[in-house]
Amino acid sequence: MKITIAQLYPRDMNLYGDWGNTLVLKKRLERRGFEVEIIDHNPGDSTDFSKIDIFVGGGGQDSGQTIIQNDLLARADELRQLAKDGVPMLMICGMYQLFGRFFRTLKGEEIVGANILPIETIAGDERMIGNIVIRSQEFGDIVGYENHSGQTFLDKTAKPLGQVIKGAGNNMTDANEGVRYNNIIATYLHGPILPKNPQIADFLIGEALERRGVSADSGLERIDDTLANKAKEIALKLSR
Amino acid sequence: MARQMISTIIGKSVKKVAKLRGGGSALPGLVIEKIDPKFIQRTLADLPQGVVIISGTNGKTTTTKIVVELLESVGLKVFTNRTGSNFSRGVAAALLDEVNIRGKLDADIAVLELDEAWAVKFVQIVRPRFSLLLNVMRDQLDRFGEIDNTAALLQKIAEATSDTVVLNRDDPRIFKISEHIQAKKVFFGTTSELLQLMPTDDTLKYGTAVANQSVAADVLLKKINAQQATFQIDNKEIDVDLQLTGVYNLLNAAAAVALARQIAGPEITDTILSALESIKPAFGRGETIYLNGTPIELILVKNPSGFRLALLSFAKNNSATMIAVNDNYADGRDVSWFWDVDFSLLKNVAMISGVRAYDMALRLQYDDIPIGKIDTNISKTLEDFINTNPDEPKQIFCSYTAMTAIRRLLSEKTDVEEIS
């Protein structure tokens, strides 16, 4: 069986080793005997989103966000429907923000987002930067690195990915980090996030397989994560 | 003048004490910055040939070393900050070593390597006569934020330059800077063919870099053949044998020659090209240290483009390989960039060490690279590495603080050039 992963805007939104997330998904699928195709979707491409099993998006510079904005808005309805249907998606940093309703700049301009996630982001003048650890009921402790000035706020009914143990997270006000919505995981954590937190990779893979009729009930075949666990153990102790 | 002399005496004394206590170059510079913020400005003001600044993401230390030695070959007395401590206080500390007790610097010209962010502050107090801008790559986003910000910093250096700015015509962000400057512009560059050996962030995922041929390069790196480079200068092709390793260092050499021609005049070209033949790599930048006759090559890697370039140049060597990575401020705290490097060129890695050894091991595992030992303790791992197959040539890819640690450890066993 072939599983198709789409990277959203990898040319302009791949600032923090985001390729690592795609690579981890690919290798963990291949080790379990699946064939993997990776499709890069860049502005103007006529990618057939209905054939995609997992979407991945990364962080970008301000200029990158401007370049991709029109294409994202043009494809937003499709993506929103796919998200409602439960297609697993991983959106990091810049793409996390752009999947929300809007990003308000320091001058008060509102950059319209894809309106898929129940969040809003407001530019801040201070960068939230450093190692971060969050705790999630679903995934346990998650480690990563954050580097953003946008402050993201969740709607009251929205569920965060986790609570900040060390670091800043979504904003300077509450202790939330990221958002969990249908099968979307959206977060400021890079590092990239999946290598040291393989339980999240396996969640995305499990959901993708289930939608293709492969029951993940019996659990995915285990992969030796000794190195990931060791790297995570060290990351948990790193200073901010 | 009294002020100059007082600051000099205090600075030199602090330096002496710091040295006795085994300290680095930062403290004396820090003290001078505090007691006499104009010390650098005053000391450099009298130089007959002014101040030269070299900046960019990759290659500053090597290029600065080349420029200094080229200028010395034509008889100029050059002041430089060769510790690679490329912040203002590093310059102040280097000056304290060189000035006489009256605070007078006996030099014709200063050639300084400056970190992008510090260079912007530096040019506000000392206006450079010449500057050389090498490249803009993604580097230490935890410090610089975005790559476009880094380009904006370099533009400020170019704008502050009074005589001539030497620029890389084949780096799109550097070339763009040339559209905004008043000073004379001179370019160096290479061919589309050679650019394939020097991937950048923009070509990491898509497309291939194309040389900006519509712009004439004063010095063009035309061909590479093992340790030989062919430069095209004034429509003549000249072959030069080099001690420098790594294709990117040959482009740095082209940049250095272009700058030296601006400073000392085109008539010195033959002299500097023959001097270029004997210039060795800078410390830790492809530097070879011999231990009981076995070469150990130290290769500094600090960002994805630099690591990719290093792998292209060094991975094919039949040397045992070690990688050592820390995550201190000077290394970059965020190690996400490991995932933007394709490691498949490496056949295997014997040892991985440093604070982030397991992050590196995890990265290599996902590229299916066989790994020998993993241990965060650098001194223990290095010991293991040199004692296993002691006669086998070795290479160590290392982050900045891992490199300085390894040099210090090796200096206890063999001759390592001291960088004060």
Layout of SSEs?
The complex is a heterodimer of chains A (240) and B (420).
Chain A: E1 2-8, H1 19-30, E2 35-41, E3 54-57, H2 62-74, H3 76-84, E4 89-92, H4 94-98, E5 102-104, E6 110-112, E7 119-136, E8 140-154, E9 162-166, E10 176-177, E11 179-181, E12 184-187, H5 193-196, H6 198-211, H7 226-237
Parallel strand pairs in A: 1-2, 1-3, 3-4, 4-12, 5-7
Antiparallel strand pairs in A: 5-6, 7-8, 7-9, 9-10, 11-12
Chain B: H1 2-20, H2 26-35, H3 39-45, E1 51-55, H4 60-73, E2 78-80, H5 88-98, E3 109-113, H6 116-125, E4 130-133, H7 141-144, H8 147-160, E5 164-168, H9 172-178, E6 184-190, H10 192-195, H11 201-205, E7 219-225, E8 228-233, E9 236-241, H12 247-264, H13 269-276, E10 285-291, E11 294-300, H14 304-314, E12 320-324, E13 349-353, H15 357-366, E14 371-375, H16 378-387, E15 394-398, H17 400-411
Parallel strand pairs in B: 1-3, 1-4, 2-3, 4-5, 5-6, 6-7, 11-15, 12-13, 12-15, 13-14
Antiparallel strand pairs in B: 7-8, 8-9, 10-11
Helix pairs in contact in B: 1-2, 2-5, 4-12, 4-13, 6-8, 8-9, 12-13
Please provide a written account of the structure.
The complex is a heterodimer of chains A (240) and B (420). Chain A is globular. In chain A, the strands form 2 sheets. A 6-stranded mixed β-sheet of chain A has the order 2-1-3-4-12-11. In chain A, strands 5, 6, 7, 8, 9 and 10 form a 6-stranded mixed β-sheet that branches. Helices cover 29% and strands 31% of the residues of chain A. By secondary structure, chain A is α/β, with parallel strands linked by helices. The termini of chain A are far apart. The longest helix of chain A has 14 residues. In chain A, a hairpin with a 3-residue loop joins strand 7 and strand 8. Chain A contains 7 helices and 12 strands. Chain A has a single domain, classed as Rossmann fold (3-Layer(aba) Sandwich), CATH 3.40.50. Chain B is an alpha/beta fold. Chain B has 2 domains: 275 residues, UDP-N-acetylmuramoyl-L-alanine:D-glutamate ligase; 127 residues, Alpha-Beta Complex (Protein-Tyrosine Phosphatase, Chain A). Helix content of chain B is 41%, strand content 20%. Chain B has 17 helices and 15 strands. In chain B, the strands form 2 sheets. Chain B has a 9-stranded mixed β-sheet with strand order 2-3-1-4-5-6-7-8-9, with helices on both faces. In chain B, strand 10 and strand 11 form a beta hairpin. In chain B, helix 4 crosses helix 12. The mean pLDDT of chain B is 89. The chains are: A alpha/beta (240), B alpha/beta (420). The interface between A and B is medium-sized, with 34 and 29 residues.
